Amino acid sequence: LAWSLMGTNPAVVENHRIVGNMAMWFSPFVTAAGLHLLLSARPVWRGLRDAPAVARALLLAGVGYLAAYAVGYVLYQGYYGGLLTGRDGSVAAAISDIALVGALLGLGVAVWCAKTGPTGDAEQELGTVPSEARYERRRDCPRFLRAWRIRFGASPEGGSGRDGLTWVRLWLVGFIALSLSGFGGGRFLALGPQRLQVLTWLPLCLFAAMGLAHMSSRLAKSAWGVLLTFGVTGVLVATFAFQGPVGRRDGKGPFAKVHAEVVSQSDERLIDALGDGTVLAPAPMGDVVVRKHGNPVVFGIGTFNLTTVPYLNVRVAVDAFFAPDTSNAQRKAIAETWCVDYVLCPATWAVAPDTVEALRQAPWLAVVAEEGRGVLFRRTSVTIQGVRYRS
């Protein structure tokens, strides 16, 4: 039903496709799921020893890929100075192909170590295979791999895993790896891999719970307390700070550009000074203008779902118009392209002072009203087919 409704406006479908063309950001994921990942590591890793050969190979390839991705992320962000800022937009396209080397190494380890299993008294000590099972240990196995083979060698029963959760481990590792990826130098991003992250949280919570169950009572209670505290705190901050009134400062709070419900009295007076015509203003001021005065606007939050042209084209044009380094000729061309009658530089979401000053100097604009840091301009000339008309 939702897709059918979206299909009534092809621009909306294109907008969702454009915005979804990205991978899950690594740093926010690790920040939000760090403790869950730590708790899940042991149940996922221990499940390798009872997994079928093919599943074990896939799991090791996935783990190897994620390990290489993490190393590549630290090196890439460290080199470009983005390690502490969390700006991960270009990371997936830059390192995903290189991280495939980790997947190949994981496959190689799986093939190498699946050829033999435990022998002697080791399996009785580890409890991984029946005591009567005997496997010939290859003499050419590197010494540092022998203990690993004893613990994670091929299962003599060839079963699907003792706890029956091998497929869930594949689910978790596979979807985390895919959601982070931008294979082909970013071509994979066209499929919107970030959407796959919604499929990772259920198995992640399952294995985190298993990790808690295998801890000592005191340690498990401490870890559970930390999880609960972080979870409740996150919900409260999101509800009362990001979405609510705590610490509210008009136009300056978290995610200010998606909050159009509060504006300053200065902007309200500027809106009252508007006449008929199309208004060009930065988001979310455009939404406020539509709501309070009814003028058509070039851009706003609602543009994403209500526009008849690609959202990205409009956003790029509006961002360029209000950018300080844009030339007067470029601004005038943008205004003429979108049939702009008024330019509103709001006080709530203030425009750069250099931009406001440049607009004051533009011969094709006149100041209508000023309130605090906000200024309202009106176009005084229009060029149609090379002929200039003044109003």
Task: Describe the protein in words.
The chain is of the alpha+beta class and 391 residues long. It has helices spanning 2-7, 10-19, 26-46, 53-80, 91-113, 122-126, 143-152, 166-179, 201-213, 217-242, 265-272, 285-293, 303-306, 311-322, 328-337, 353-361; strands spanning 279-280, 342-345, 365-371, 374-379, 381-384, 387-390. Strands 1-2-4-3 form a four-stranded mixed beta sheet, with helices on both faces. A two-stranded antiparallel ribbon has the order 5-6. The longest helix has 28 residues, at 53-80.
Short description:
The chain is an alpha+beta fold and 391 residues long.
The share of residues in extended strands comes to: 5-15%
Radius of gyration over all CA atoms, rounded: 29 Å
Please state the structural category: alpha+beta
User: What string gives the helices and strands in order?
Assistant: HHHHHHHHHHHEHHHHEHEEEE
| Biggest sheet strand line-up | 1-2-4-3
Span of the ends, CA to CA: 48 Å
Residues in helix, %: 40-55%
